[in-house]
Amino acid sequence: xxxxxxxRILRQWQADPWLSPADLADRCGVTVAKLARRQxxxxxxxxxxxxxxxxDWAVLGYAVEVSLRVTLDKTVGRAxxxxxxxxxxxxxxxxxxxxxxxxxxxxxxxxxxxxHYQHIYRNKILTLxxxxxxxxxxxxxxxxxxxxxxx
Length: 151
Fold this sequence. Notes:
The chain has 151 residues and is of the alpha+beta class. Helix content is 36%, strand content 20%. It has a four-stranded antiparallel beta sheet. The radius of gyration is 20 Å and the shape is elongated. The protein starts with a helix and ends in a 13-residue tail after the last strand.
């Protein structure tokens, strides 16, 4: 599926997504035209879903990050769908993940401080539908955060 040139492009693109096409092509040993064709194919094939900025929420004043592990009431029809629909509308929920097992969902929630988090928790999270159980895990430190693949 991927050849050495594709891997080189992905490796360099991951390392520095802000490179100009000319610089990226130079680092990958291809022409700008070949790079553009390869990038378009990688995107069309769904390998590259997009290029985005990584934001440091703490620098913007969101000093608190909490991971909420949620178990849903599965006796309710459409419990998952209704929960996801409502959770997507909470601006402070920056990530929603689903799991198999006792925990159904994990929400990543950001807040400016503990008072703000308590407001979000009481007025937005606890009002989400079909929650059977919820556990909060306060993030103390992020030791590793890397979405780059070893290509």
